[in-house]
Design a protein that fits this description.
By secondary structure, this protein is α/β, with parallel strands linked by helices. It folds into two domains: 220 residues, Glycogen Phosphorylase B (Rossmann fold, 3-Layer(aba) Sandwich); 157 residues, Rossmann fold. It has 14 helices and 13 strands. The strands form two sheets. It has a seven-stranded parallel sheet, with helices on both faces. The longest helix is centred in the N-terminal third of the chain and has 26 residues. GO terms for molecular function: hexosyltransferase activity; UDP-glycosyltransferase activity. It comes from Ktedonosporobacter rubrisoli. Pfam families: EryCIII-like_C.
């Protein structure tokens, strides 16, 4: 069987699929990804092939909805002409797609190929969608989102017309249910979980050892000190002021602090680095979470799921509206605390970490969901379901 993977070119979306691809290849299946060149090493390490294309998303999608919307719309216009003929020539038996790849519905309609949805974040239906979750929060805000969705729908209609397929809308794509929808969350973390039928398979985080080269100095970890891990992910990692707050909050503490700062920060602008801090542009997150006591995170879904898998309580500091939803979920499930990024102070950050590190109730709940998460099936259950679906679709 040949599987085509149409995944949003962002690490939080690609990473959960890699273990599945590796498992499919191990079972003699053929897997082809369509992604920018930057993902080649990670994809080929699984045994899968890659067809690369040029993408604007890797250059940054912006921090406000209007900026992200503009880049996403330009991405839709530019990517499909680059790869449509190659997907058609590859003749996939099954297409596995990320709902955030809005043009994937066009490919599926054109090729009339069975499809599976791979969802790195919350599943949605008529009972739950992300907008309604935000609206349930006090002082919720969706700045510019209505306009972003309207403009996105206009571009989708334009592209659909150019390929002579029926139009799709942003929300229709987000809520569209394939015969099989694999969700990379434990079902307990999914809001309104009881309203999703058997088409939705909640496998939890898809985690397998990563084969990505790293020069992170694991030998410098001090096993005599509790480890505090700080990361704002791969997009929102240029926050110099926040990193200085971390220095002030934990520079004199008992923690060894591992801080992931990405590739675009000027370290000289941060001032003296405390002796108990270990800074790196790239951190092997799974290895660090395996022994971390607390995780200060942007509450991206991929990082959140990995934290649950390793049973690490979180201090969530969301950087965008989608992450606010997950931070809220972390807090309401008693898995950690949520802070508003604009209200963070050194003292408040220190107090939050101490509370999360020492709260017995938080610790118990995190351990409970760790067990539940690990029993959800992960990539092995996902690959098994995919192969069964492909066989039945022949």
């Amino acid at each position: 069987m040949r599987y085509s993977f149409l995944i949003l070119p962002a690490y939080g979306h690609v990473n959960p699929t890699l273990a599945i691809a590796q498992e499919l290849v191990a079972h003699g299946q053929e897997v082809i990804y369509y992604l920018p060149e930057a993902f080649r090493e990670a994809v080929e390490a699984t045994g899968a092939a890659i067809r690369s294309y040029e993408s604007r998303l890797l250059k940054g999608i912006g921090k406000v909805p209007s900026q992200r919307g503009e880049v996403m719309r330009e991405e839709m216009r530019q990517v499909l002409p680059q790869i449509m003929d190659r997907i058609r020539a590859d003749k996939p038996d099954v297409i596995l797609h990320d709902p955030m790849v809005l043009w994937s519905r066009i490919v599926i309609q054109l090729l009339q190929v069975p499809a599976i949805s791979l969802r790195p974040t919350y599943a949605m239906n008529e009972h739950f969608n992300m907008a309604s979750m935000l609206e349930s929060r006090p002082n919720h805000h969706l700045p510019g989102m209505k306009e972003v969705v309207e403009k996105t729908n206009e571009v989708l209609a334009e592209i659909c017309a150019s390929y002579h397929v029926p139009p799709v809308s942003f929300m229709e794509e987000m809520m569209y249910a394939e015969p099989l929808n694999i969700v990379f969350l434990p079902k307990a973390f999914q809001p309104e979980a009881q309203t999703f039928d058997e088409r939705f398979l909640f496998v939890g985080p898809s985690i397998a050892p990563r084969r990505q080269a790293s020069d992170f100095p694991l030998d410098q970890l001090n096993y005599d000190r509790p480890l505090l891990y700080v990361s704002l992910g791969t997009i929102f990692n240029t926050e110099s002021a926040f990193y200085k707050q971390c220095f002030e909050a934990f520079g004199e503490s008992d923690y060894q602090v591992v801080l992931s700062h990405g590739k675009h920060i000027d370290l000289s602008a941060l001032g003296p680095i405390p002796e108990n801090f270990l800074l790196s542009s790239y951190v092997p997150q799974l290895e660090i979470l395996e022994r971390a006591k607390v995780f200060v995170t942007h509450s991206g879904m991929n990082s959140t799921m990995e934290s649950l898998y390793y049973g690490v309580p979180m201090v969530a500091i969301p950087q965008m509206v989608e992450q606010e939803m997950t931070a809220q979920r972390i807090a309401e499930m008693g898995l950690g605390l949520a802070l508003e990024k604009d209200a963070v102070t050194s003292a408040g950050l220190r107090a939050a970490v101490e509370r999360v590190a020492n709260d017995v109730t938080i610790h118990e709940r995190v351990q409970q969901i760790k067990q539940y998460t690990r029993e959800s099936g992960g990539y092995k259950l996902a690959a098994e379901a995919i192969m069964q679906f492909a066989w039945q679709s022949r």
